[in-house]
Amino acid sequence: MGLSGSGKSTLLRMLNGLLSPTEGHVYVGDSELTTLGGEALRRLRREKMSMVFQHFALFPHRTVLENAAYALQVRGLNRSDREERARAALALVGLEGWEGRLPSQLSGGMKQRVGLARALAAETEILLMDEAFSALDPLIRREMQDQLLELQSRLGKTIIFITHDLNEAMRLGDRIAVMRDGRIVQIDTAEVILQEPANDYVAQFVQDVDRTRVLTASSVMVPARSVVVDPAGPRAALRIMREEQTSAAFVVTRDRRLRGTVREDDALAAVKRGSDRLTDVLNTSPTAVSPDTLLADVFAPSAESPLPVAVVDDEGRLAGVIPRGTLLAAMASLAGNGLTTEDTSPDQAPSEVDHG
Q: How far apart (Å, rounded) are the C-alpha atoms in residues 107 and 99?
């Protein structure tokens, strides 16, 4: 990503061999692209790389199916095989049933879907996308971004996406290279670029980003203070809650898998009944999010839960918690002076139970 004239499209043209670099090398797998002859370079493009263009680049006299199958026709596949693969690619991008239409009968978003289907039908390992969504209106653009993220989660391709739109880069990019005057000035995840800009240029570039749409639960979570390891009983849970001065505790297994939560009043009632099992008073449906949940998506569960929001990894282990006060303090610091949540230590975090 970068402003117009920063060198993004020039870099992309070097990656597919349309421009020769003045120095340096481009490797695709074990092949050094910069040393390939004409035929070898064309073969690599046909078999390894696909392009999705800003202005669709569809043949107006060919149907949707014929456009989607064009790369396979160039490759020499027979008609039935290329049409079968093109139909499958069109179904992936939501254009099943539109195969016989001409581009003139499609909306801008649908034309771009055809361009994406053409790239997917080629079944190449690499997709090069040059400002692919910038000609679309905002609603269709958002829809295409959602489609690309969904396809990427299913297909796992290498995608190089060129954009001058910061929010688009932050939303789509696993890693972002920020360019200026033909140079990459920083390359990292969106979260690191937001919180640790390499220089004033990058800092100014990202200053207006809605950080709640980029930063994740893992960036603001703190260690859980009251944790009870099952099969401890209600007396042990009460002792831990009183030591930590909280009115609830998280219950985990020995390998930190979250089982639920227990409230102080419920544990006390269990002790009075003579029960020695936490399972009798355990809430097995605690409010929880994954570490990569966007902060914007943490507000609702935090508002609805009287307890801190648990952050649970893919294995169901308790990674940390987000008390409501910590979430609000993080947002205030981000909105105020660019400080990150690292400026508030866990020891200074509010009590894990929000008393309202």
A: 14
